[in-house]
Specification:
Elements (H helix, E strand, L loop, with lengths): L8 E12 L5 E25 L2 E13 L8 E3 L5 E10 L4 E11 L1
Antiparallel strand pairs: 1-2, 1-4, 2-3, 3-6, 4-5, 5-6
């Protein structure tokens, strides 16, 4: 069981904005919204082959103090790994939140 009091990781959260590149094409780019401390539990780590590529997928559970965040944001941890938020649920009487996030990478 993970205690919500041990917030020893720092996370940054980004929203997606649009910018124009040097050729004038519109691209999606992350916009830094803020950062927070939380506890992290790597819940699942799978590796599988799709075609000839090895796909690594990790699901993490993050607990932190309650604030306004939803599945439209992207998280980055201290190691520079980006996570897509899959779900956010309140714990207790809106004291803490539990964020379920996933990352996928090709090797």
């Amino acid at each position: 069981m993970m205690d919500a009091g041990f917030f020893n990781y720092i996370f940054k959260y980004y929203s997606t904005g649009t910018t124009k590149d040097s050729l004038g094409q519109i691209i999606d780019s992350p916009v830094l919204e803020g950062s927070f401390y939380g506890s992290k539990l790597v819940w699942q780590n799978r590796e599988q082959y799709e075609g000839k590529q090895l796909i690594e997928s990790s699901i993490v559970i993050i607990r932190t103090y309650f604030f306004d965040i939803d599945s439209t944001f992207i998280l980055e941890d201290e190691d520079g790994i980006f996570y897509n938020i899959k779900g956010v649920k309140p714990i207790g009487f809106n004291d803490y939140i539990e964020i379920t996030a996933q990352t996928k990478s090709n090797r």
